[in-house]
Each structure stands twice: as C-alpha cells, then as structure tokens.
Amino acid sequence: MVRKAVIPAAGYGTRFLPATKSQPKEMLPVVDTPTIQYVVNEAVESGIKDILLIIGRGKRAIEEHFARNYELEELLKAKGKEEELRLIQAVPGDVNIHFVWQHEQNGLGDAIRYARDHVGNEPFAVLLGDTVLESSEERPVTRQLMDVYNRYEELVVALEEVPRERVSRYGVIDGKEIGSGVYLVEDMVEKPSPAETPSNLVIASRYILPPEIFRALENTKPGKGGEIQLTDAMRILLADRAMYGYRFKGRRHDLGDKLEFLKTSILYALKREDMRDPLLAWMRDLVQN
C-alpha cells in the first residue's frame, strides 16, 4: 500500500531566470495558485497524507507556503473573508508535510536518495514538483498509478505519447502493451535522439517506486550531465524484477517550459467562471486587431 509521497523541488529553475533568481520555480503561480500546490493537491486527492518535499538553496518560500499563517487567518476571519481563508489553508489538517534539503544538485536520482530515512521500507509515490498532470477522469493521475501498483506490486511509471522529435527531453521506455494502457517495460533510455529512441512513450513525471530503489541508487554511477539519473537506477531493478508503465488518462503540463507555462495559465484561467468570458473577449480582440 502506498502511503507516502516524495516531491523533488530542489532544482535551480534556470530556464525561468531572472524570475527564479529570488523565488523557487515551483512557487510561480498558474493563475493564482503556486505550481507546487497543484502537485501536493494531486497527492492528497490520491489518498496520501504523508508528503516529503525535497528542497534546496533558495526554496524557503515553499516551506513558508505550507506553514499555517495564524495571524492572516484571524484577520480574514474577522473580515468575514471565508473564501480567501479557505484558499490560504493549503492542505487539510490531517496531512503531514515534511522537508529535507538536497545539499548539492546531483540529479533526480540523488534527490530521491534524500527520502530514504523518511520512506523506510515502503513503496512510495514520486511527483516532480514542476509538472502538473491534469486527469481526464475522477481519479488523479497518481491514484491511477497506485491502482496499477496494487495490481502488480512492482514499480510503475506514468507514460505519455509524444512526437518523436521531442523524445530527447525525456526518459523513454521500450515495452509491450499487456492491458488497456498498461505496458510491461523491457528497457529504458534517458533522453535518446529521435533516431535512437525505442518508442515515443516517455516517462511523465510520476512514479510508484519500491524501497529497493535506494539500494539501486547506491550502485548508480553518474550518467548524462554527470548526474545520478533515476532512470539508470530503475534499469538496475529491471534486471531482476518486473516493471510497468501506465499511459495515464489526462494531460501533462510541463511548467518548467516557458511557453507551456503560459499556455497552462491561459487554460486554467479559462476554467474559471470569473475569468473565462472576459479573457475570451480579450483574446478575440487581440487576434482580430
């Protein structure tokens, strides 16, 4: 049973400089909600109440965001601003959020190693802190993966089909479909060229990992970019156990990309009743003139 989630959020966010010189990229808002809040919400809505955020230098704002601000809450109560009060209470009271610092930027695999003491001998979910996965069904994407894990009790990754010219940005799997959207993974490669890629099914920022991943990470040598790659550690596990991928039902928003960030902000604004009509009117006027 998956009871814990790990959210790596220690990266520098260099693609968003100068905005991220003094604030975490995960705190950049989509409309009026920080990116990291959407990620935490996905974990909570999947039934997870124990969450570890892996942060680094300059990420203190993430800790402050998830801490209770009792003075502000009392002020909003006194003014009768119940909706605003609800919005600033970032997580339900029965959800525990913890923090650990990644002292050096040595890759995603290295970040996951910092979760070892917190996770213990349990399977756990990993949600990348700069990517929002919008589910197209009632179950959040992490819950979809958890359901696959409950069936096979082996490592599960979220999968997304992308055009082949984009595979060099992701980890890519080679495998065969064994059920509706479920793939038995036979191999993986990190950021291949379009000519070398085994498929166009890429790993989409969500994982259910067994505790054995920590032993594999200990044996993982630096890979591309001189960093410890989580994909390389998963390949070590793949040598003697099964691994599955699930083509999730939903849409990925990679908020580490500037254009995708702008598109996502517009899409989420269009979902808001208070913004949809005036925003559409402005967009029509912009296009026509």
From TrEMBL:
Keyword match Nucleotidyltransferase: yes
Keyword Nucleotidyltransferase applies: yes
Any Gene Ontology biological process: UDP-alpha-D-glucose metabolic process
Enzyme class label: transferase
One MF term in the entry's GO annotations: UTP:glucose-1-phosphate uridylyltransferase activity
UniProt entry keywords in alphabetical sequence: Nucleotidyltransferase, Transferase
Reaction(s) the record says it catalyses: alpha-D-glucose 1-phosphate + UTP + H(+) = UDP-alpha-D-glucose + diphosphate
Family under the similarity heading: Belongs to the UDPGP type 2 family.
Name of the protein in question: UTP--glucose-1-phosphate uridylyltransferase
Organism: Marispirochaeta aestuarii
Top-level taxonomy: Bacteria, Pseudomonadati, Spirochaetota, Spirochaetia, Spirochaetales
